[in-house]
Design a protein that fits this description.
The chain has 6 helices and 2 strands. It has helices at residues 17-24, 28-56, 88-99, 103-111, 116-122, 133-157; strands spanning 82-85, 125-128. It has a two-stranded parallel ribbon. Helix 3 (88-99) packs across helix 4. It is globular, with a radius of gyration of 19 Å. The protein starts with 16 loop residues before the first helix and ends with a helix.
């Protein structure tokens, strides 16, 4: 983190994620620099872990939560894509509540991503998460069953 200096460290010398977020979501060049440091390492670790899972169970269904999947053009790594849809205004509200940030900061973070409506266009499956948690849970359960059925069909054909 030498690139960002002492300003992104807490008193105990640990990373101050909130401060780092404030910096990188206000400065595209700094965000790209951070992504250049982190994304290759994260992708390498992910692929290593994925290979371990598949070597232990070639029929495994692996769910990976990758916020910038489409922006990084990594969709080729996956058989199916799932987008969890929440309208932009609700995304902003949830970010503000979760991270204790302002509306402007939340909107800035979303601008670093493709709009959710565009992401839906890439999806094989969409979970609507704007309603009650129970409704989202029902969708997740139904999708999991569908994925299991697809996997079983794939195994039978092989």
């Amino acid at each position: 983190m030498a690139y960002f200096g002492e300003q992104v460290l807490q008193e105990d010398r640990g990373l101050d994620r909130k401060k780092l977020s404030e910096i990188v979501f206000q400065d595209l060049e700094k965000r790209k620099k951070l992504e250049g440091f982190t994304h290759p390492r994260i992708l390498g670790e992910f692929i290593q872990e994925l290979n371990e899972i598949v070597s232990g169970n070639p029929q495994a269904i692996v769910l990976a939560d990758i916020p910038l999947l489409i922006e990084l053009n990594l969709q080729y790594l996956f058989h199916k894509l799932l987008v969890v849809y929440v309208p932009e205004e609700q995304q902003i509200q949830r970010l503000m509540e979760r991270d204790g940030i302002s509306r402007e900061e939340a909107a800035g973070r979303l601008k670093a991503q493709l709009p959710i409506e565009e992401k839906v266009g890439y999806a094989d499956f969409v979970i609507h998460n704007e309603g009650a948690p129970e409704e989202t849970g029902k969708q997740v359960d139904a999708l999991w069953e569908k994925l299991r059925q697809l996997q079983e069909e794939k195994v039978k054909k092989a």
